[in-house]
């Protein structure tokens, strides 16, 4: 299980548990940072969409969007 910390001051994300991901990747172990980046960005995009949908549902206006 991974533990994720976000530092807004330095805009960094720390992820514990990437050793597990590396183990699963096997021979592609050197791709671990890229795999983590894709997973983090996909999660951020999904969270953004959900937050926008919830804001629209309660009537917060976003201008032209």
- What is the mean predicted local confidence, pLDDT? 86
Q: What is the strand tally?
A: 2
Given helix and strand content, the structural type is alpha+beta
**What radius of gyration results from the CA coordinates?**
16 Å
Largest sheet: 2 strands, antiparallel
The end-to-end distance, rounded to whole angstroms, is 37 Å
**Helix-strand topology string:** EEHH
Q: Helix share of residues? A: 40-55%
**Broad shape:** elongated
% residues in beta strands: 15-25%
How many alpha or pi helices? 2
Poorly predicted tracts of residues: none
What is the spatial order of strands in the main beta sheet? 1-2
Features:
2 helices, 2 strands, single chain, two-stranded antiparallel sheet
What does the secondary structure layout of this molecule look like, with pairings?
Layout: E1 3-7, E2 12-16, H1 18-25, H2 32-57
Antiparallel strand pairs: 1-2
Summed up:
This protein is α+β, with helices and mostly antiparallel strands.
């Amino acid at each position: 299980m991974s533990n994720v910390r976000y530092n807004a001051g330095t805009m960094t994300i720390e992820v514990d548990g990437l050793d597990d991901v590396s183990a699963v990747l096997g021979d592609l172990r050197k791709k671990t940072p890229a795999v983590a980046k894709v997973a983090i960005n996909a999660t951020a995009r999904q969270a953004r969409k959900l937050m926008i949908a919830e804001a629209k549902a309660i009537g917060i206006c976003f201008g032209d969007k």
